[in-house]
Amino acid sequence: MTAVPHTARPAPPVDPALLSRALETAGRLANDAAEVITATLGRERGGTLDARAKANPFDWVTDTDRTLERHTRRVLAAEFPGYPVVGEEYGWGEGPAHPTAAGMRWVVDPVDGTANYVAGLPWCAYSLALVDPDGPAVGVVADPGRGQIYAAARGRGFRANGVPVPGRRACRVAGSLICAEDPDAGFAARCRAAHAGVRVLGSSALAITQVALGHAVAAVLEGCHEWDVAGALCLAAESGAVVLDRDGRAAALPEGGMLVAAPDVASEMYALWRGSV
After folding, report:
1. In the structure, what pLDDT confidence band is assigned to residue 25 with cuts at 50, 70 and 90?
2. Integer-rounded Cα radius of gyration of the chain
3. pLDDT (average), residues 101-129
4. Looking at domain 177-274, which of 3.40.190.80, 3.40.50.2300, 3.40.50.2000, 3.50.50.60 is its CATH number?
5. CDD domains under this entry (predicted)?
6. CA atoms of 158 and 139, how far apart (whole Å)
7. Are 221 and 253 in contact (CB under 8 A)?
8. What would the pLDDT profile of 167-201 be if each residue is shown by its tens digit?
9. Which CATH superfamily is domain 16-164 in?
10. Helix (H, G, I), strand (E, B) or coil at 134
11. Span between the terminal Cα atoms of the chain, in Å
């Protein structure tokens, strides 16, 4: 089984005024979230372990998760009336139950990496994206642990704290780092055999962001929801990264498992992921 990574068809442009307004609003919400997460990191050890609402019994739900999502919903309802919001904690919520006529919806994960947040480990993030039928059109990821707000919009590039991120350099798998969430032992062993290191950050959004930044050559996610990854996938797309689904097809917002990789190594990484080496 060998992937033949290809570039997905270019997504159609989005109204420039809408993109600018969405970026500004998303950036404000990301800054709000970063302040709250920084102030409360490691202080919610009394949070509830909600095994009924989530499939993974290690998936914490805290007051901060709920508070940040409610705040996000209030602001978006006021500034983008008629646009539904899909979130980790409240699903489709009480707003519109379907995307707009243009197929647009907001997708939010108030704290991606809540177990890290509860433990006081600063590898957690706030993620927000405006998604249309062609994938994320606007994405922000707040990384409070490193004091960074990452933002991107379709066709406008990728910025870190307002500064354009440099273009991607040539890379190879050997000697590089690969981010992975819930990797199996076989994948980790294949990466070691390829002389690459695997890092599990505990945050899907931050794992993908490391690829967009060029810190890691790839990220493999075995299972995730759109709110975990939508914001970071916008960053990845604007950085030039390749996004592949389990079948090796280019996809803007894959369901389930995915590979996000630098173009130079996408074929090799897909083979390592799917065990075809």
Report:
1. very high
2. 18
3. 94
4. 3.40.190.80
5. IMPase_like (cd01637)
6. 9
7. no
8. 878 899 999 999 999 998 999 999 999 999 999 99
9. Fructose-1,6-Bisphosphatase, subunit A, domain 1 (3.30.540.10)
10. coil
11. 9
